[in-house]
């Protein structure tokens, strides 16, 4: 099973200038809980937005740059297909974690989407999550989180499974 995990605004905004548009500590905790001990697949820019390797996860970075060397502990691959093939040999549930182009490429190869829907729109974003076609996906779980002192925006955890 391939799972895509993301946090996107009401207008599908993901980020701007290779950074998130919000900080939601509870969403970070959920991301860590769901992806720990599984391969994570991402584009180069997403990888470079991290401070370092995320603990307890095997990292796959997709790039066309044949000389890209992020260091020890990272698989560098030329395509999503190759990343998925290797990742699924290691673990039955790899996660696609971004960015925007990788999400677009991965949507047709994904079985499940774990989406945090941020209840706000961000018009100045430069990266967006693809539309989720209702005829292809079934919403199987929804959990609302009100804004509070740690969370500037309210949000919902949405789980979609392919029909």
Automatic annotation (TrEMBL):
Record Gene3D superfamilies: Dihydrofolate Reductase, subunit A
Pathway: Cofactor biosynthesis; tetrahydrofolate biosynthesis; 5,6,7,8-tetrahydrofolate from 7,8-dihydrofolate: step 1/1
The keyword NADP belongs to this UniProt entry's keyword annotation: yes
Annotated catalysed reactions: (6S)-5,6,7,8-tetrahydrofolate + NADP(+) = 7,8-dihydrofolate + NADPH + H(+)
InterPro entries: DHFR, DHFR-like_dom_sf, DHFR_dom
Coiled coil spans: none
Annotated DHFR domain residues: 1-162
A single MF term (Gene Ontology): NADP binding
Record-level GO cellular component terms: cytosol
UniProt KW keywords: NADP, One-carbon metabolism, Oxidoreductase
PROSITE patterns reported in the protein's UniProt record: DHFR_2 (PS51330)
Purpose of the protein: Key enzyme in folate metabolism. Catalyzes an essential reaction for de novo glycine and purine synthesis, and for DNA precursor synthesis.
Stated family: Belongs to the dihydrofolate reductase family.
PANTHER family reported in the protein's UniProt record: DIHYDROFOLATE REDUCTASE
Protein name in UniProt: Dihydrofolate reductase
Source organism per UniProt: Zunongwangia profunda
């Amino acid at each position: 099973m391939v799972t895509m995990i993301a946090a996107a605004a009401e207008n599908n905004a993901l980020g701007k200038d290779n950074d998130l548009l919000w900080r939601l500590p509870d969403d970070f905790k959920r991301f860590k809980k769901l992806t720990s001990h599984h391969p994570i697949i991402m584009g180069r820019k997403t990888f470079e937005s991290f401070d370092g390797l995320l603990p307890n996860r095997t990292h796959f970075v997709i790039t066309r740059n044949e000389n890209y060397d992020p260091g020890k502990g990272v698989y560098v691959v030329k395509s999503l297909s190759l990343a998925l093939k290797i990742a699924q040999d290691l673990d039955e549930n790899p996660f696609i974690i971004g960015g925007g182009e990788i999400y677009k490429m991965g949507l047709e190869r994904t079985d499940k989407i774990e989406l945090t829907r941020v209840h706000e729109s961000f018009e100045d974003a430069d990266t967006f999550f693809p539309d989720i076609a209702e005829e292809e996906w079934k919403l199987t779980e929804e959990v609302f989180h009100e804004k509070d002192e740690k969370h500037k925006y309210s949000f919902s955890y949405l789980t979609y499974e392919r029909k």
